[in-house]
Amino acid sequence: MSAAGAPPVYRRVLLKLSGQAMAGESGTGIDPEVVTSIAGQIGDAVGLGTQVAVVVGGGNLWRGREGASRGMDRATADYMGMLATVINALALQDALEKLSVASRVQTAIEMKEIAEPYIRRRAMRHLEKGRVVIFAAGTGNPFFSTDTAAALRAAEIEADLILMAKQGTDGVYDRDPNRVAGAKKYEELGYLEVLNRGLGVMDATATSLCMDNHIPILVFDLGRKGNIVRAVAGERIGTLVRGEPAK
Question: What is the number of structural domains in the chain?
Answer without folding.
Answer: 1
